[in-house]
Amino acid sequence: MRIVILGAGQVGSSVAESLVSEANDITVVDVLPERLKKLQDRFDLRTVVGNAAHPAILEQAGARDADMILAVTQSDETNMVACKLAATMFNIPTRIARIRSSDYLSHPEIFSPQNFSIDSAICPEQVLTDYISKLLEFPEALQVLEFAEGRVSLVAVRAFQGGPLVGHPISHLRTHMPQVDARVAAIFRGDSPIIPEGSTVVEVGDEVFFIADTKNIRGVMRELRRMDKPVKRVMIGGGGNIGRRLAKQIEHRYEVKLLEYNKSAAQQLAADLDKTLVLNGDVTDEELLREENIAEMDVYCAVTNDDENNIMSSLLAKRMGVRKVIALINRSSYVNLVQAGQIDIAISPAQSTIGTLLARVRRGDCAAVHSLRRGAAEALELVAHGDEKSSKVVGRRIEQLDLPKGVTIGAVVRRHARQNRRDDAAPLYDYKVLMAHHDLVVEPDDHVIVFVVDKLTVPKVEKLFQVSVSFL
Amino acid sequence: MAWLLPIMPVLGLIAMAMSLSHLLPIGVSLYTNDGMAGLFTVSMTLNMLIGFVVWFASRRRRQPELQLREGILFIVLVWVGGALFAAAPLLFGLGLSFTDAYFESMSALTATGATLLSGLDYLPASINVWRAELQWLGGMGVIVLVVAVLPMIGVGGRQVTKAEIPGPMKDDRLTPRMTQTAKGLWIVYFALTFACMLAYWLAGMSWIDALIHAFTTLSLGGFSSHDASLGYFKSITIEVVAMIFMTLAGINFATHFRVWQARSLAPWRLDSELPYYLGVLCVSSIGIALFLWINGIYPDFATALRYGAFNTVSVATNTGYATVDYGQWPVFAPLWLIFLGTFVACSGSAGGGIKMIRAMILCRQMNRELNMLSHPNAISILKIKNRVVPNQVVFAVLAFFFAWLATLAIVTLLLTFSGLDVLTAFSASAASLNNIGPGLHEVGPSTTFAILSDFQTWVCSVTMLLGRLELITVLAILTPAFWRK
Questions:
Q1: pLDDT 10s digits, A161-203
Q2: A292 to chain B nearest CA, in Å?
Q3: ipTM above 0.90?
Q4: What is the average pLDDT value for chain B, to the nearest integer?
Q5: What residues of B are in contact with residue A288 (Cβ under 8 Å)?
Q6: Residue B484 touches partner A, C-beta closer than 8 Å
Q7: Which pTM was predicted?
């Protein structure tokens, strides 16, 4: 696929990085030559210097025969204009823009083909904020990812001494909780994946990924570790884009304190936020943390723009007695250093937000992609199209599928037209979450949730789900 | 002093325009045949003539726009001079002394409602209508009326309203042009008054009583044509009507205007003061009723609630009607009422006192300071309904509050110095400063301000003016800097 990426900031670079490895032709546009140079040094891609909203620059970047444009510059307005130009001047079929302002996002009609022609507007900050707030909701989990509009969740939990399932084979889950259907998708022991069988024994320290109906995940987690008290008090370090969104989103559910170093930014935050206590000070100021009772906090989230600051302040907070720390870390080498040590959860913004973009880039009908374990593994929600003849999936039992090694099917979400709808406001369809037992038969339009341990096998999985042209 | 000249022609025009307000009492006088028509006609002619002379003599000095300083002085002169002209019919028609007539007309124009007249029931109908009409005009602010008229005669109104519209946040524009705003407010005021008059009439008042009481209800003035005030009618329907309209009149008229403009109730729901205003009124009404009932003042709770609620709403909104002599209640109750009268009315209403919005700002400022003690690094911002109140406004409110407290203390001291007892002096001072009307004890609801000496009467007249023009405006004129070129 030929893809034009506008903007070589954090989002643009990490998107470029993960797309370039999937055999795409990438062109990156940015106003700053230094940024582009860095990219070009590392990857095999073309770069163009200039304003991404100018027709001449887009032309130069090969917009004429591009298949997709990703407008992810810092400026919403540039992104919107670029998408409009891509549609009217260059006929690029797929246009994705990063739109941060909630004001624009609250009027989806401005993205329609008659207006700004944006196929999908994404907001990485919002994705990240949702991600963190899910973790606050389930403080025991390392990762909570949703599929099929939140009906199915993939949860990563570290197995602890004391969980009823720990030290037992996975098949015991059935006997412990006969009424709950859940499926262990993968286990990571140390850094190596284990493809779970019924007889695989869960050991202390294992990172267990399981898939379950969203309403059951608490129960399943209880099998793997003792439950913590629900989160009540949260401290956020850093009032940037993410800190502000996070505070705004959770301030009515938890008691929130927010630290911001810049005084005038702090004042603006205090004006915008309703119940959050905004504090002016350094996130690594031990005195300030003590004064604000860090020991009494349930969770500390370090979300400044600076990796080192985030790491240092979370280490400090952890030592001062906070129950759990979450740190935002951009550099993947740092993530490997600190994860599972003192810092409970290290979040890589690029990895957690790239999924929304990847879902659009993939061949086949891909409803959601979540990148796991720093991009090594992936969970996909694929839609099975076609019929028994044209598809290699539809009409077959799960055990019959020709899955590559290290790929497991976790669950299937099936849609039924709703019977006797009383009023027009009622949803059109009922959804049913089915765990992928070996004898389940895939039907057309099922959403299949696939767990891929090794990212290199993703193209094979996609191919499996593609409708073969010859049969059409 | 030459810089004063530009306001003279405007003052002249105002005087001429205001002289037309005599037409209503003249009409009433002719209709009821109470013999005052001649007097009012003379007063009107005199008023018109003086206005004309002032305007004619200084008309060449007119300027297109008033400066802020001129605007402030202009406002004060309109009130001082307006009360002077309005006092003439009382002076000659009732044979009052000049001091007393001026007090009465100042009390009317400031919508205070303190009176030193007794035997109101036997006064000529036209005099009662005149007193009520003055309150009605004063209530909305003679100025808002003037603002609607002034631009037509070529004088911009922006500087004028800055000094006039009550409340700390004055830049909250309703319409792009001041004239439209003034007209809008005026229409809402007029419509509510008309509705109120109709309701009173339907509830059983005579046309003239309905007119007088509608005037004094909407302006939160509180003059009545009966010594027993609204208690005269002994009608629960009339009391309920009065309570509803007093409550409405205590709300920011800008909010009413928005409701009328948008044809939706949303502006009421979004008003920042309204929940507190209604909350305080409800809680206090029920609280006072319980207090009265428990103390055995009234045999049953229903009666206690009827009298308790009415007088609470009346005093809290600074109207000053009474249905019973609440001065006879155990002293906690009337003191509580006076306390309510100091802050309950919303900004932008005809009520007096420091206004609900200032009380809210003061409370939140206090919380902010307390919060700073436990979180020294916290950035705390004073917000009203999600809007940040700039520190400058907070300082202005603090200064205003200090001026208000100081005035209250000084006036109380002056009144006790001249021989009044503490309760009378304090309540007279609070009732004048907050434009409530009746005080307690010797100036309570069943008595009048007639017992005051001339000196005390003047003190109260000035206090009413100070309260109406929100202190700072008047106090600014008293500073040397104001007069320096």
A1: 777 888 888 888 777 777 777 888 888 887 788 888 778 888 8
A2: 7
A3: no
A4: 86
A5: 377
A6: no
A7: 0.80
